[in-house]
Amino acid sequence: MKKHPKNLxxxxxxxxxxxxxxxxxxxxxxxxxxxxxIEGVQQEFFFTLSNQLINxxxxxxIVYFNLFYLIPNYLSKNRFLTYGILLIAASIVLTxxxxxxxxxxxxxxxxxxxxxxxxQFLHILLTFLIxxxxxxxxxxxxxFIHVSEKQELEKQTMQSELRFLKSQINPHFLFNTLNNLYAxxxxxxxxAPEIVIKLSEMMRYMLYECNEKxxxxxxxxxxxxxxxxxxxxxxxxxxxxxxxxxxDAGHRMIAPLMFTPFLENSFKHGVGNLIANGFVxxxxxxxxxxxxxxxxxxxxxxxxxxxxxxxxxxxxGLVNVQKxxxxxxPEKYDLQIKDTPNAYAVHLKINLDE
Length: 354
Prior knowledge:
Blueprint: H1 5-17, H2 19-39, H3 45-75, H4 80-105, H5 110-118, H6 120-167, H7 171-186, H8 191-207, E1 215-216, H9 217-235, E2 240-246, E3 253-254, H10 260-270, E4 279-287, E5 290-298, H11 317-328, E6 333-339, E7 343-351
Parallel strand pairs: 2-4
Antiparallel strand pairs: 1-3, 4-5, 5-7, 6-7
């Protein structure tokens, strides 16, 4: 539906009164100054100024007519032929009106009058090119806004996924840890205080420190160690859990909970009642800005028959993990997954150079 002229005028006024109106005004002042410099002050200054004010007025009319009417009603609706015809028609209509004003204004300057009449086509072409330039500007501006909005949406999606990931503390892991802790307190075991500290550190890290865009890699490593220690307590002696850290995490920064989905997934699928001799092997190597994370877990001889099949990388799924990697480390990571009859392995390499 085409916009009513009153609505069009109201929109135009709102645009000019907004913050953008200042930049529009500044732009036309610069154009005015350039036109004065190009023409040169052959007559008195105010005569030249008035000439270029007329030019700027008609240029502004066709530019805003193009931006607020032609583009929204024709170009944006893919009516390219109609848009092109109307833009040419607008140039042909507006330019003679400007020429009439100049002919009247140059009443006492026959040479200037003749110059205006002889170069009408050139003025029409110039008007059309200026209108066309506003079209190019509009296309690039809309593209830039679209890209910015897309990036903002991706950022919000990434943040919501991180919040979701932080909420995915495995309830079985938590309850079993508390049950084991309760059993240790009944036995008055010296391990009980240590378990409380590890659990509190994990909860504090997930609920508070992970709100930052980046966290220290050393804290992420400490979280992994605490997680493994508590899982070792929960799983007992029938499960072999190995963790190897190569290199120094130092003060390098990494996106929080980057390895958690793979970690949770390995313990969820890699050990359990269906596996006689389960194992989880984890190796984290740090070499400069390169982090190499490898995790491998055992698999049952027969896969579970549950109809609720979780995706193989924890609470948020492999697809969302890859999406988060694409947002945080575009072209700076390599993720490989190997699924064999007896084991499931994930190999993730990330370059942390910002």
